[in-house]
């Protein structure tokens, strides 16, 4: 009984970390990262399609991304989608590829991004705590229904708390690493 509850809580907490990792990947640092284009969709024959499924995205240097579509007819659509996104980058279209120059971030913009990262980390902490609450609720219910002895229920709650502390520490470590990444010049 407690093993199932712990497994469910652990799976939920892992998902929270995975979501945080995804959110951090989409935060722009001073370097060009092809993952910033993952959420941008382009209308490709009536279907919203991610850029990485319709073009090769390369990073020739730390401050440039090159998008080379396999079908040159979607070049304008990709350019329009990038302009419409919240990336804050102006694409340069030369007829065969799109170049995305990533300017060096200002101190103010870096601080904004750190603030954004802290928000993502807090969302992850809340998700982890929600998993703890759900697990503790299941343990209480099992104790109330006499499926679980009281001392075993208490041990299970302690295990859930240790698991929660472990994942909160992981979230904090990920945030610290991302903050250092963003503030690095």
Automatic annotation (TrEMBL):
Q: Name the NCBIfam families on file.
A: frr
User: Record keywords: Cytoplasm included?
Assistant: yes
Protein family (similarity comment): Belongs to the RRF family.
Single GO term (MF): ribosomal large subunit binding
Which PANTHER family does the annotation name? MITOCHONDRIAL RIBOSOME RECYCLING FACTOR PSEUDO 1, RIBOSOME RECYCLING FACTOR
What this chain does, per the entry, is described as: Responsible for the release of ribosomes from messenger RNA at the termination of protein biosynthesis. May increase the efficiency of translation by recycling ribosomes from one round of translation to another.
* One protein family per Pfam: RRF
Task: Provide this UniProt record's keywords sorted from A to Z.
Answer: Coiled coil, Cytoplasm, Protein biosynthesis
Q: Which organism is it from?
A: Slackia isoflavoniconvertens
Q: Which residues form the Ribosome recycling factor domain?
A: 21-183
Biological process GO annotation list?
Answer: translational termination
Subcellular location, record wording: Cytoplasm
Stored InterPro entries: Ribosome_recyc_fac (IPR002661), Ribosome_recyc_fac_dom (IPR023584), RRF_sf (IPR036191)
**What is this protein's record name?**
Ribosome-recycling factor
Gene3D superfamilies per the UniProt record, alphabetical: 3.30.1360.40, Ribosome-recycling factor (1.10.132.20)
């Amino acid at each position: 009984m407690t093993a199932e509850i712990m497994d469910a809580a652990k799976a939920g907490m892992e998902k929270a970390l995975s979501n945080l990792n995804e959110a951090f990947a989409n935060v722009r640092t001073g370097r060009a990262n092809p993952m910033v284009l993952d959420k941008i969709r382009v209308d490709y024959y009536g279907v919203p399609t991610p850029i990485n499924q319709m073009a090769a995205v390369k990073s020739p240097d730390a401050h440039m991304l090159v998008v080379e579509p396999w079908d040159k007819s979607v070049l304008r659509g990709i350019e329009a989608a990038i302009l419409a996104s919240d990336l804050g980058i102006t694409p340069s279209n030369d007829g065969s590829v799109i170049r995305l120059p990533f300017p060096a971030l200002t101190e103010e913009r870096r601080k904004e991004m750190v603030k954004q990262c802290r928000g993502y980390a807090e969302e992850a902490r809340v998700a982890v705590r929600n998993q703890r609450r759900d697990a503790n609720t299941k343990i209480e219910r099992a104790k109330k229904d006499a499926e679980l002895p009281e001392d075993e229920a208490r041990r299970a709650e302690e295990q859930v708390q240790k698991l929660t502390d472990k994942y909160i520490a992981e979230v904090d470590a990920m945030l610290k690493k991302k903050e250092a990444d963003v503030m690095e010049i």
